[in-house]
Structure to design on (955 residues):
């Protein structure tokens, strides 16, 4: 028989049981919904409310957008949701206007794959999943303002996703002003002649296509032919962040190849400096800030031009001081200059090892490019034992030494960093050193080694790379770096290069522009059409939302996973009536034929701005009302960039979602649409609820619930299985649903257990057997207020004793601090301690029972509401004042001081908590037991740590 159906419970008809919990929880959830208990008023608009509530301090508390999975929730999913709910409830009880809601990030690949397999429209399966997830979340008693919930698949929502895209498309970044500006202002500069066109022709003399090409080079959203990660097995391109270290797709584990395709991009690189600088004003974990800083990857150096015939290869280097040591160059295989500089035949005397065994440079380059296309950027940057590459047949000229410098292509150089070209200084760079050894290339020492290796690199075992050294053998007729330290040499050569137009000091970033196209059906359509010349035109706002059309086949065309010589074919392209349209765009050109963009936006798009829609979800005229956005997210003391007050989610979103959302916020801020330059002021990463995974001899997961433990080993159907702590999930057959726990114990017990398992930011293993501990806490709480035999309130109107008052006010003080600091596990421990104390009191005073109920209300709101009502109150605990501790009872009257002699305890003294070191020393030395232990010996030293320790060191 289970804990919840014991004989004892049957004998006590009004005991707190799972059945009673279910009844209480359902009634109060209905009450909250009917009374709009969690509705947070805006200062104006359709969600405006009582002025006195709006006048309260505000708190905007958010969870990261959940995806509505077909398998529903397991007990690991609600951890963050319950935590933010507890925090939000605490702030409501401490006099705040709290906005807390939850929507659904509902576009994505799983629903599309399910549609491909079953023929079910992605909308139908997604909406069914949302209904189920809402049911599960409601059962947990989460205090969400349901009026504000949004779904990214709702056309009324993605209308504004498309609107934001058009704002970004119609903007450019002004480097001097350090902000985005409308593209029309750039057009005015070109038209007036204030800004010259690239070839000097007047703006009026350019064709529409030529103007579009120039503007595309400035727009913050632009289409371009660029190297992308092409995944034939999925039939789509992927962002760098969606490719694993092994060069495979994160979803499906398919091979990924480099290909050149026309795709939409976001010019996030324009904001690299601001994305870095503004991290300092955010209250985020330092580990997350570091990941963002590393991803953005700021480095200072110089751009230097190396002539190659009539062309120039521009390199970015952070070690321009070593230019005299550059003995060869390397281009990324995809570099656009490769075809232009590759000659028809090998130059006379070409070293055989440079050719890769090919008859011509063109053959060598083509073969190597094909080989490099099969590797991911991560694989290419890995320190492989064998260095690969091939000579292009071309020579550049070193601009400082004038020497001929052979130009290679090699996969360890990426187009995604710098210029896609490097000057190789093998004596002072480990990769260049290994490459030079492999291809028998010359080396020149230009930085004096600090050890005894000498200056001939031919005798070295490894490169010498140091910033704490002096330059040598680095001079020409106009400049000498010899004898200079690295910093001075850098400054001198940079100035020399700039004076001669050969180069300039610059800052480079690892961050690349954001690939924004997907060859998918289930995503936001681009509000873009193309004219007969291929020029992109934005749809007018009156045509938004551009809704997804119906198609017969939801899947992109997929290919053999290993076939790199393929290209995308999108589902939307098959609906010709939707693709080819006659439209009047309101630009004065009248109705014309256009072709729609058939890619869709990535699943990140809808989550880049959802915090703004929570503020004003029904506004059909604006993205968000300015006064509402300022009220909830505007800058204020301690929050220089504004943003959400608390954002809770997993650390796995450290780069992608957070970086993209920050970029969108900054563009909208620059254009004057919002007052907050950052979306999330405080970020908190919750840990993960883990579970044991049991696998048989084949490595296949078996149902965890059916595994038996015998003598320290684990068995499934008689066969011994392995056990490993890992993730919880349906596929691992170890998932426990919140529905199961709610049925067995009630939602309040589940909430308490998840919060009590350990610090919120630490991962912890799930143990169903341990849940009963929190269930018993609630049963004892119930008994402290309600007579289990009669169901009547059992508290009395008597004054509590001093020990009870001290226990109560210490608990209040500690729980307040813990709930404010997200330390829910220690808050529950303090409540448990107080509850246990009250259990031992013969008659429970009302003045103790009521604050005890209020203390537990944020964690266990259903039972708190029920007990509060039984205690005679008509208001809800949700907005009742949280208890405040009386300082007089928080401080102990006396504390125990330990007196040690030679490290051994010789006495214990009851002293005042405020006693001074001097007073405590006198008391300790006068104590009879201490005097006896000293036996007349002298004292060398007395160490006092008032009020709890005195350590005496005899002479």
């Amino acid at each position: 028989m289970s804990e919840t159906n014991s004989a004892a419970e049957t004998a006590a008809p009004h005991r707190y049981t799972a059945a009673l919990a279910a009844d209480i929880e359902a009634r109060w959830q209905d009450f909250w919904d009917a009374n709009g208990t969690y509705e947070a008023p805006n200062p104006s608009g359709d969600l405006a409310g009582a002025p006195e509530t709006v006048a309260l301090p505000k708190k905007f508390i958010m969870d990261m957008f959940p995806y509505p999975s077909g398998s529903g929730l397991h007990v690991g999913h609600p951890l963050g949701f319950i935590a933010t709910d507890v925090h939000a409830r605490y702030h409501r009880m401490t006099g705040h206007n709290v906005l807390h809601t939850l929507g659904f990030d509902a576009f994505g690949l799983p629903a599309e794959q399910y549609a491909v397999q079953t023929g079910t429209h992605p909308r139908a399966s997604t909406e069914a999943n949302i209904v189920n997830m809402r049911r599960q979340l409601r059962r947990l008693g989460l205090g969400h303002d349901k009026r504000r919930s949004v779904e990214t698949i709702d056309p009324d929502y993605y209308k504004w996703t498309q609107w934001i895209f058009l704002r970004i498309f119609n903007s450019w970044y002004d480097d001097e002003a350090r902000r985005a500006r409308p593209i029309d202002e750039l057009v005015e500069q070109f038209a007036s002649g204030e800004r010259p066109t690239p070839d000097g022709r007047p703006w009026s003399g350019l064709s529409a296509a030529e103007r579009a090409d120039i503007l595309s080079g400035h727009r913050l959203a632009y289409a371009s032919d660029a190297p992308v990660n092409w995944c034939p097995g999925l039939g789509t391109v992927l962002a760098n962040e969606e490719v694993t270290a092994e060069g495979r797709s994160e979803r499906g584990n398919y091979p990924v190849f480099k290909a050149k395709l026309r795709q939409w991009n976001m010019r996030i690189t324009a904001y690299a400096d601001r994305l870095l600088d503004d991290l300092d004003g955010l209250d985020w974990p330092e580990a997350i800030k570091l990941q963002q800083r590393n991803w953005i990857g700021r480095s200072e150096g110089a751009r230097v031009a190396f002539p190659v015939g009539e062309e120039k290869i521009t390199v970015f280097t952070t070690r321009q001081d070593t230019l005299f040591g550059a003995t060869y160059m390397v281009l990324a295989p995809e570099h656009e200059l490769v075809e232009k500089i590759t000659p028809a035949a090998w130059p006379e005397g070409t070293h055989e090892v440079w050719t890769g065994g090919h008859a011509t440079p063109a053959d060598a380059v083509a073969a190597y490019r094909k080989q490099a296309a099969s590797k991911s950027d991560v694989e290419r940057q890995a320190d492989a034992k064998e260095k690969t590459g091939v000579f292009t047949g071309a020579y550049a000229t070193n601009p400082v030494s004038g020497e001929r410098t052979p130009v290679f292509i090699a996969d360890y150089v990426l187009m995604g960093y710098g210029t896609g070209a490097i000057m190789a200084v093998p004596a002072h760079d480990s990769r260049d050193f290994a490459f030079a050894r492999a291809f028998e290339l010359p080396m020149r020492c230009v930085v004096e080694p600090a050890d005894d290796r000498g200056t001939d690199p031919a005798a070295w075992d490894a490169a010498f790379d140091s910033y704490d050294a002096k330059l040598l053998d680095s001079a020409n007729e106009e400049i000498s770096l010899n004898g200079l330290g690295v910093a001075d040499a850098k400054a001198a050569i940079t100035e020399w290069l700039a004076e001669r137009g050969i180069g300039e000091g610059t800052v480079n970033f690892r961050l690349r522009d954001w690939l924004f196209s997907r060859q998918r059906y289930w995503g936001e359509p681009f509000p873009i059409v193309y004219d007969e010349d291929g020029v992109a035109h934005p749809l007018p706002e009156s045509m938004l939302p551009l809704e997804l059309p119906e198609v017969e086949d939801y899947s992109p065309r997929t290919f053999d996973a290993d076939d790199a010589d393929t290209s995308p074919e999108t589902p939307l392209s098959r609906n010709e009536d939707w693709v080819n349209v006659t439209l009047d765009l309101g630009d004065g050109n009248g109705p014309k034929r256009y072709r729609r963009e058939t890619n869709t936006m990535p699943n990140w798009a809808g989550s880049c701005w959802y915090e703004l829609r929570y503020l004003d979800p029904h506004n059909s005229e604006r993205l968000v009302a300015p006064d509402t956005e300022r009220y909830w997210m505007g800058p204020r003391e301690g929050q220089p960039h504004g943003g959400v007050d608390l954002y809770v989610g997993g650390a796995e979103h450290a780069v992608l979602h957070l970086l993209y959302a920050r970029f969108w916020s900054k563009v909208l801020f620059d254009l004057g649409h919002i007052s907050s330059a950052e979306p999330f002021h405080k970020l908190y990463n919750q840990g993960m609820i883990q579970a044991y995974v049991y696998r048989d001899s084949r490595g296949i997961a078996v149902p965890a619930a059916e595994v038996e433990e015998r003598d320290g080993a684990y068995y499934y159907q008689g066969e011994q299985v392995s056990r490993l702590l890992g993730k919880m999930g349906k596929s691992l057959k170890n998932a426990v649903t919140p529905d199961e726990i709610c049925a067995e114990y009630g939602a309040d017990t589940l909430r308490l257990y998840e919060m009590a398992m350990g610090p919120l930011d630490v991962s912890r293993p799930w143990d169903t057997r341990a849940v009963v501990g929190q269930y018993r806490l609630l049963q004892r709480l119930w008994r402290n207020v309600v007579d289990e035999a009669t169901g009547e309130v059992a508290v009395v109107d008597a004054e509590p004793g001093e020990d009870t008052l001290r226990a109560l006010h210490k608990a209040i003080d500690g729980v307040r601090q813990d709930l404010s600091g997200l330390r829910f596990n220690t808050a529950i421990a303090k409540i448990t301690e107080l509850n246990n104390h009250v259990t031992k009191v013969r008659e429970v005073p009302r003045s103790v029972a009521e604050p005890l109920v209020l203390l537990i209300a944020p964690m266990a709101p259903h039972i708190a509401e029920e007990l509060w009502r039984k205690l005679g109150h008509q208001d809800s605990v949700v907005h009742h004042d949280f208890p405040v501790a009386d300082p007089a009872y928080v401080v102990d009257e006396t504390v125990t001081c330990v007196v040690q002699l030679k490290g051994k305890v010789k006495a214990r003294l009851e002293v005042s908590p405020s006693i001074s070191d001097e007073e405590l020393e006198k008391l300790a030395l006068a104590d009879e037991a201490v005097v006896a232990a000293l036996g007349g010996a002298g004292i060398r030293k007395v160490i006092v740590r008032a009020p709890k320790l005195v350590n005496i060191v005899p002479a």
Notes: The longest strand covers residues 221-231. The chain has 31 helices and 31 strands.
